[in-house]
Amino acid sequence: MEPLTDASPDADARRRVSALFEAHALGLVKFAKVMLGDQSIAEDIVQDAFVGMYRKWGSLHNRDKALGYLRASVLNACRTAHRNRIRRDRALFLAPDPGNMVSAEESALVGEANREALAALRALPARQREAVVLRHYLGLTEEETAQVMKVTKGTVKSATSRGLSTLTRILREEAE
Questions:
Q1: pLDDT score recorded for residue 113
Q2: Mean pLDDT, rounded, for 136-150
Q3: Residue 94 burial by CB count (10 A; 0-12/13-18/19+): exposed, middle or buried?
Q4: 21 and 108 Cβ atoms separated by less than 8 Å
Q5: CA atoms of 36 and 45, how far apart (whole Å)
Q6: Which of 4, 23, 105, 139 has its CA 20 to 30 A from that of 157?
Q7: Does 160 score more than 80 pLDDT?
Q8: What is 91-119 written as a DSSP string?
Q9: Among residues 87, 103, 95, which one has the least CA distance to residue 40?
Q10: Which residues, at least 6 apart from 5, have a Cβ–Cβ distance to it below 8 Å?
Q11: If DSSP states are collapsed to H, E and C, what string results for 3-38?
Q12: 103 phi and psi, to 5 degrees?
């Protein structure tokens, strides 16, 4: 592995960040993909989060919270990517196209019901979508979700409740 900076590589940083990557990268990519609907952007976001973690390892205040920092970094990057996509679409006078072509592999892996559920999830307001995905897809506690989103537990509870209610309504309407 080539050093990412001019500083001499820190063996502890390399070992600990590599262990975090092996244990959590796939879940973080799945999380980012659910948030954005794009596998390649999700992979880039997660890779950037781990590179940033490695570069700043020496300055982390609490290394035991590294996974929380990574989750927050991925969520913030997803927010930025989503905002950039909206700006780009507006600038090009394009509406977001939920019917994007998907790869044969993705089509085989994701059934019609899952595609409808993901489309409904992406239709939620950002905060509700984030809360639902963090709580029910990643399985975080309310407290962990609040830390990642940088909001209170009450906000997580209400956003999750409203998000689930809206998802239920959207999916029922589509089923009719």
A1: 62
A2: 90
A3: exposed
A4: no
A5: 11
A6: 23
A7: yes
A8: HTT----TT----HHHHHHS-HHHHHHHH
A9: 103
A10: 55
A11: CCCCCCCCHHHHHHHHHHHHHHHHHHHHHHHHHHCC
A12: -70, 160
Number of H helices, E strands in the chain: 8, 0
Q: For residue 25, count other CB atoms closer than 10 A to its CB.
A: 16
The model carries a pTM of 0.61
Give the gyration radius of the chain's Cα atoms.
Answer: 18
Residue pair 35/85 in contact (Cβ under 8 Å)? The answer is: no
Query: Which residues, 6+ apart, have CB-to-CB distance to 33 below 8 Å?
Result: 39, 42
Secondary structure letter of residue 89 according to DSSP: H
The CA distance from 149 to 143, in Å, is: 10
